[in-house]
Write a structure and sequence with these properties.
The structure holds two protein chains of two kinds.
Chain A (H helix, E strand, L loop, with lengths): L21 H10 L4 H5 L12 E11 L2 E8 L11 E8 L2 E8 L9 E5 L3 H9 L5 E4 L15 E6 L3 H11 L8 E7 L8 H9 L4 E7 H4 L8 H6 L7 E6 L1 H13 L6 E5 L13 E5 L4 E5 L5 H7 L17 E11 L5 E2 L5 E3 L3 E9 L2
Parallel strand pairs in A: 7-8, 7-10, 8-9, 10-11, 12-17
Antiparallel strand pairs in A: 1-2, 1-6, 2-5, 3-4, 3-6, 12-13, 14-15, 14-16, 14-17
Chain B lengths: L1 H8 L36 H21 L2 H25 L5 H27 L24 H12 L32 H8 L3 H9 L2 H5 L5 H30 L5 H27 L17 H10 L3 E3 L2 H6 L6 H6 L8 H14 L6 E3 H14 L7 H4 L1
Parallel strand pairs in B: 1-2
The chains are: A alpha/beta, B mainly alpha.
């Protein structure tokens, strides 16, 4: 799953860190104002009091432009449930960048992600990662998980939408004698289809997994605007709890279809397209101050700092001319324009200098 | 400088006055001129100053565009070296009753503290490394091995000193409230003690800064509330307790296992004093040597971006020397470049310096630089000279 819409700035991540042991607390007497972990990191790259980390143990090429990266997480991680995702941070040109990826190993096992090289971050992960590299992590989360009680399942996936479902299949098949899983997976070509060999092996075991490949270069997209394709591929789809993960249109169509069939309670979906805020332009925009629960329309001449202060948000501030960095506020979503350069930018978790930045379209700030 | 005064006042929430309907743009104008261009730049036209600002902006943009993994690796390497030195220094002090161990321990700990405060702490707290988005090396999370809490220092240093550089009455770093360091400061009889105060300040410099950051003069003037002062005192108290605990209790107590309590305590005291004397010398070289200009508030009224740059250049002084000098001063040896571009990573100032120097010579502006001994000597000379009243002081009176 390349990009999930839920994004958080790095300053929220300390909450995930494990509680300090009494021994660590005592060691702090010698290391203050730094933490003992800051010194332990001289020998253990996973040691940090601020940032959960993991070390890459294996990189396995999957297709021409995808790879599976296995890693061993440090303290603060909790075992994932099948279908969950985690935010993964890597450094590109010295800058920490975050994306969310589904964890593809069976629930509870040491995690792995399978990344398709689309976009700069996934590209860097696929091409440049090697065992021993450090990944920055946030613990697993997500509601796209298996039902509590066993029942017949249908998985409809497209492209890298297969990744969370692969974790579910690995968790169920071989482990549960009563597994009954139909997988309908759409990909452009059979050769470029993720996990093709492993899925074949699992299906051949006759442990309750049936795999159907839908090749879009030959058959066109799966049409979920009506029931025709579905009836042909999985005739008993109405009786199955269904998980759909793929592009936005596919999910929208599925939602409408299951609703029309009065089966919406049987449908679980996972979107993985980034949320694009509409209207990203240069003439100001609607600013939402999330923690303060305030909103305001700001024009292209009003800085985010002024906009916040005008509606009574307690904005951190300092020099008000772009020097002192006292006014930094994490960007949750949207784009801002730097008044000094005219440059429009906006990255997940980026700290914005509110005193010299204006809204470029709708902006959400974590203040 | 009415415009900027309003801007700074706006940071103080004032419930009594209604919020103005329309605020100004938060950046300095690109056109116009200050009410008085300082003598060193008086020969420049508005257009020349504006063109120079564009050239300086271009230098900054060039560095921003080429920041990358090389710079990230640099700061991580420095932090790793510093922490290794600090551990090794403290470990040596455990055996401090053995003189070579004492010398090695004090040496390593002093150097570690200097690197921590200067090349790492000062620059991280400036936000020079914020672009990496690494919460372990970030201006919003960093705390340093110095008694003043990072938050207090960031306010007086980043918000006040770097904005109001060398403006007498506004930049409180001009003399740090106790020294007469500019002709623009009115002479008072107690200024006769100028050299003595400075000599006493050097070995306890971190305490001087800590007290200075409390802004007691602002409290007296009613610009800072008692509540704010109490909050700052509490934060400082906690910091002081932790710093004392580490250097003067925990480390000597471990050394007591080898019968080295007292030598270890003397060792940490010495290391802190060495760091203080060094930091004091370097920081005073930044704006106080002869030739570094000071300004009055009236002069800078209407200041443009270009004139702001001019003020930073002619109000700051560099230290020339080896790579080791630049490193041990936290690249504050490139004070001029640092004041022009306070948020560029410190390891890049060296490559910016020749370009800035070239601009200065082309526009006929002074570029104040010299070896450390000369700059320190010049600063002391000024401190002695300004201890005495200006010529005609008593005649006027």
């Amino acid at each position: 799953m390349p990009e999930v819409e839920i994004r958080r700035p790095f300053c929220c991540e300390y909450r995930y860190m494990a509680r300090f042991s009494p021994l660590t607390r005592m060691a702090q007497v010698f290391t203050t104002p730094h933490s003992p972990e800051d010194f332990l990191r001289l020998v253990n790259p996973l040691s940090s009091s601020r940032q959960l980390r993991g070390i890459v143990t294996e990189v396995i090429p999957e297709t021409e432009d995808s790879a599976t990266i296995r890693f061993h997480p440090g303290r603060g991680w909790h075992a994932h449930e099948a279908g969950q995702w985690a935010r993964i941070g890597v450094e590109i040109d010295g800058v920490r960048q975050w994306r969310s990826y589904s964890l593809t190993t069976a629930g509870g096992e040491d995690p792995a992600i399978t990344v398709t090289a689309i976009g700069a971050i996934s590209e860097a992960l696929v091409r440049n990662t090697k065992p021993g590299d450090v990944l920055f992590l946030a613990p697993p989360q997500g509601d796209f998980v298996l039902p509590e009680h066993p029942r017949p399942l249908l998985m409809i996936t497209a492209g890298s939408g297969l990744t969370p479902v692969m974790s579910m299949i690995r968790t169920l098949v071989r482990r549960r004698a009563d597994a009954d899983v139909q997988l309908l997976h759409s990909s452009r070509t059979l050769d470029g289809s993720l996990f093709r060999d492993e899925l074949q092996e699992l299906a051949d075991l006759d442990h309750g997994l049936t795999v159907k490949h839908w090749i879009t270069s030959e058959q066109g997209r799966i049409d979920l605007s009506g029931t025709k394709d579905l009836d042909a591929a999985v005739p008993d789809w109405r009786e199955r709890a269904t998980y759909v993960c793929g592009p936005t249109e596919m999910i929208n169509e599925a939602e409408a279809l299951w609703k029309a069939a009065a089966r919406e309670h049987q449908l679980v979906i996972e979107r993985f397209a980034p949320v694009i805020l509409p209207g990203a332009g240069g003439a100001g925009g609607h600013v939402t101050f999330e923690k303060s629960d305030k909103e305001v329309d700001a024009d292209g001449d009003t800085t985010l700092l002024e906009a916040g202060e005008d509606v009574g948000v307690v904005m951190p501030s300092g020099c008000r001319m772009g020097i002192c960095q006292s006014c930094l506020v994490p960007l949750v979503a949207g784009q801002v324009r730097d008044l000094r350069t005219g440059e429009v930018h906006g990255e997940e978790g980026q700290l914005v200098q509110t005193c010299v930045s204006t809204a470029a379209g709708p902006v959400h700030l974590d203040v | 400088m009415t415009a900027t005064a309003q801007r700074l006042d706006a940071t103080v929430p004032d419930a009594k006055t209604a919020t103005p309907a329309r605020r100004r743009r938060a950046i300095l104008p690109t056109e116009g001129h200050p009410s008085v261009r300082p003598p060193a730049a008086a020969h420049l036209s508005d257009e020349q100053v504006a063109t120079m600002a564009v050239e300086l902006d271009a230098i900054r943009d060039g560095i921003l565009a080429s920041r990358g993994s090389h710079d990230a690796a640099y700061i991580r390497r420095v932090i790793k070296t510093q922490r290794t030195l600090e551990l090794a220094g403290r470990a040596s002090l455990v055996f401090a009753s053995f003189p070579p161990a004492w010398i090695a321990g004090v040496g390593m700990l002093s150097v570690a503290k200097i690197i921590e405060n200067m090349e790492i702490g000062h620059n991280v707290l400036h936000g020079q490394w914020d672009w990496m988005r690494d919460p372990d090396i970030h201006s919003t999370t960093w705390e340093w091995d110095f008694v003043t809490p990072a938050a207090s220092w960031k306010h007086t240093h980043n918000d006040l000193h770097h904005v109001w550089t060398n403006v007498v009455g506004k930049d409180r770093d001009v003399g740090y409230n106790i020294l007469r360091i500019s002709e623009d400061q009115v002479w008072r009889p107690w200024n006769l003690g100028n050299p003595l105060y400075n000599a006493l300040l050097a070995p306890i410099f971190e305490w001087g800064i800590a007290v200075y950051d409390l802004e007691l003069d602002e409290v007296a003037a009613g610009n800072k509330t008692k509540t704010e002062l109490r909050r700052d005192l509490r934060a400082m108290g906690k910091k002081v307790a932790r710093q004392f605990g580490k250097d003067y209790l925990a480390t000597p107590l471990v050394a007591a296992l080898t019968g080295s309590f007292v030598p270890a305590l003397v060792g940490t005291l010495t290391a802190n004093a060495i760091r203080n004397v060094w930091a004091h010398a370097v920081i005073f070289c930044g704006h106080f040597p002869e030739g570094a200009d000071t300004f009055t508030e009236d002069m800078i009224d209407g200041e443009t971006r270009g004139d702001w740059y001019v003020r930073q250049m002619i109000g700051s002084a560099n230290i020339s020397g080896s790579k080791a000098i630049h490193f041990m001063t936290g690249n504050l040896s490139h004070q001029i470049e640092h004041h022009l571009f306070p948020d560029l990573p410190s390891n890049r100032y060296a490559e910016v310096a020749p370009q800035v120097r070239e601009i200065c010579s082309r526009y006929g502006l002074p570029y104040n630089t010299g070896p450390m001994w000369k700059q320190v000597g010049s600063t002391w000379g000024k401190i002695f000279r300004l201890a005495l009243p200006p010529k005609g002081h008593f005649a006027k009176a």
